[in-house]
Write a structure and sequence with these properties.
4 strands, 155 residues, 5 helices, 2 domains
Length: 155
C-alpha cells in the first residue's frame, strides 16, 4: 500500500508533464501551420463585381462571398433550429446587394458555372434558393456570359 501512496505524486507529476508537453507541441504545430492568402474572387466574379458596381447608386453596396449563416437567422425551436442553421452555415452566396442606409439585403446573386450541373451542387443550390425564398429575398442566378441587369432590384 505504501508503494501506491508514494507513487501517486510521481504519477501526478508525470501526467502534468505530459499535458504540458502535449500543449506546447500542439501550440508549436499551430504556429508553424502554413496559412496562405488566396484570391477571394475568381476572375469571373471580379468581372461581374466590376460590371455591377457601375449599375449601383451610392446607397447600395455589393458584398462578395457572404456566408449564409451570417445573412440569415434560423427560426423554430431547439434542435430543429440548430439543424437548419448548420445546413446553411458554411454555404455562401457569390454576392449580396445591401442597402447601406439600413443594412438590409435586397438581392442575392449566384454565378452558376458548369460545376452547378453536378448533383451535389444542385442539392446545395436548392438549399440556398430555399433559404433566400423563405427569407423573402430574391435570388438572381446567372450563367457565364449572360448579361446581368440588377436595376429591377434597386430601391
Amino acid at each position: 500500500m505504501h508503494y501506491l501512496t508514494g507513487g501517486l505524486p510521481l504519477i501526478a507529476v508525470l501526467v502534468a508533464l505530459f499535458a504540458v508537453t502535449a500543449f506546447l507541441l500542439s501550440r508549436k504545430a499551430a504556429e508553424s501551420a502554413c496559412y496562405r492568402a488566396r484570391p477571394l474572387l475568381s476572375e469571373w466574379e471580379r468581372r461581374v463585381l466590376s460590371e455591377l458596381r457601375h449599375q449601383l447608386p451610392a446607397h447600395l453596396h455589393l458584398c462578395p462571398q457572404v456566408r449564409l449563416g451570417d445573412a440569415f437567422r434560423t427560426t423554430g425551436g431547439g434542435k430543429e433550429r440548430q439543424s437548419a442553421f448548420w445546413r446553411i452555415a458554411s454555404k455562401s452566396a457569390d454576392f449580396m446587394l445591401v442597402d447601406l442606409r439600413n443594412g438590409h439585403i435586397l438581392l442575392g446573386i449566384e454565378l452558376n458555372d458548369r460545376t452547378h450541373r453536378r448533383p451535389d451542387r444542385q442539392r446545395r443550390d436548392a438549399l440556398v434558393a430555399l433559404a433566400f425564398e423563405q427569407a423573402g429575398i430574391p435570388l438572381l442566378c446567372v450563367s457565364p456570359f449572360q448579361p446581368i441587369d440588377i436595376t429591377p432590384y434597386l430601391r
